[in-house]
Amino acid sequence: MIKWAKRSTFVDLFAGLGGFHVGLARLGHECVFASEIDPHLQAIYEKNFGIRPAGDIRRVGINEIPPHDLLCAGFPCQPYSKAGSQRGADCPKWGDLFEYVLRIIKARRPRFIILENVPNLGKHKDGATWTAMRSELERLDLDVDERVLSPHQFGIPQIRERMYIVGGRSREGGIGHFSWPVPDRKDTPDVRTVLDKRPSEARPLSNQVRRCLEVWQEFLDRSPRSVELPSFPIWTMEFGATYPIEGPTPFSLGPRRIMKYRGSHGVPLREFAPDERFLMLPSHARQWGSEFPRWKIQFIRQNREFYARNRKWIDPWLPKILEFPASLQKFEWNCKGEERDIWKYVVQIRASGVRVKRPTTAPSLIAMTTTQVPIIAWEKRYMTPRECSRLQSLEGLQHLPEVPTRAYKALGNAVNSRIVSLIAGSLCQLESSLDDSHRFESEPSRNLQPNNWSQRGLQVHIYRVG
Ligand SMILES: C[S@@+](CC[C@H](N)C(=O)[O-])C[C@H]1O[C@@H](n2cnc3c(N)ncnc32)[C@H](O)[C@@H]1O
After folding, report:
1. What are the residue boundaries of the structural domains of the chain, listed by start?
2. Fewest C-beta in 10 Å: which of 141, 346, 373, 388?
3. Per CATH, the architecture of 4-189+398-464 is what?
4. What percent of the chain shows pLDDT beyond 70?
5. CB atoms closer than 10 angstroms to residue 228
6. Longest dimension (CA), the chain
7. Of the candidates 248, 277, 276, 247, the residue with the CA atom closest to the CA atom of residue 261
8. Spans in the chain with pLDDT lower than 70
9. Ligand 1 test: best mutation among 164, 413, 420, 421, most atoms within 8 Å of CB?
10. Cα–Cα distance, 165 to 171 (Å, whole number)
């Protein structure tokens, strides 16, 4: 039987590990150019896909970039991320990179684009940044739409919200035919589906992390069943603290006026020299400025009230948590109503505290730090890079960076390839229907033969594949 498949060409800008490449190759599309500044990732990309990405996109001449049907770019998110500088276009290292994407679109006029970034791009500067970017794309004759999607909505066990942006040239029908993939809520994902059986290369928990989880387990064991565990983050440093939270901050009150209060874990501030008192407050209270934001006041108040109601069983436990750094003294229990047993869940050590989650999903992989790699608590180990690659639908990659820290970082930066396939599958439907009508007009030869759409500037090729 003769099957037909069409083949569009694409470029992979800020290629990283190649999430776009995997997602598009799965649909039969062909990469004609990639760019990636990191030499280690360039080498891995070449090993996996046989294409050596060009380096810094700022130094790539436009003639080096062949014409293409689809431009893909997961441009760096640090300037827009809540966890980053939030300096947007003013970010000296990455703020200008979107401009280079625009330049390539302007010069090469691809039929479609798919861009990816953090969801906060849509909210950055109260939406002004994305509004400006969108109108720049529209000025280049693109119809544009965007949506936040996450792999867990499609049965993949990772919560990772990302903003996907699609565009199509208005003069050639825009994106009227396109529809966003519809989340498939029938499947409840399960992190166990991506795990290997006790992999020998897995990194075990450090003594400190293991001991800390034991101490938090003791907290859970001591909590009476009649007490509902907080759904807000537990900040133990607020247990016993009395420093003022409404009105002027301790910083604006100054050391003399806060002397009568208690700081972290209830330490009396009067016992410290004036220049030390500020340091005896929780780090979240050592804030310059006149007032705390409302959300912080709310968390502090909830913690103090919880402690006041429960100090009988908390007080004998509290000294045990003091041996750990501040981030480990905070706790988020995201397993409301479930068995109070940390060792049955997925844990992540975040700057904001120890987070315990149901094993339905892994937390979002994070590029900046390997301490936040998800912990499989029932095996007392971290997830391996190979397991994490499945969270990004990159299990088909033959090569990952050999150094685990590099592998985790690259995986934390990558785009989920399955979501790319779902988006591109719909975006290319127009091409598909054009091909269908065209298919009967002229019989393609056995080898690659551009059909007559290419005369209209479209590089849609018809292949005989079977
Ligand atoms: C968010 S990641 C994109 C990851 C990619 N989509 C994937 O699936 O792995 C951004 C990538 O852009 C690369 N990068 C940063 N500045 C660059 C530049 N000036 N030129 C080319 N690549 C750059 C980074 O090294 C990083 O790998």
Report:
1. 4-189+398-464, 197-383
2. 141
3. 3-Layer(aba) Sandwich (3.40)
4. 89
5. 10
6. 90
7. 277
8. 1-6, 84-85, 92, 185, 367-368, 429-466
9. 413
10. 19
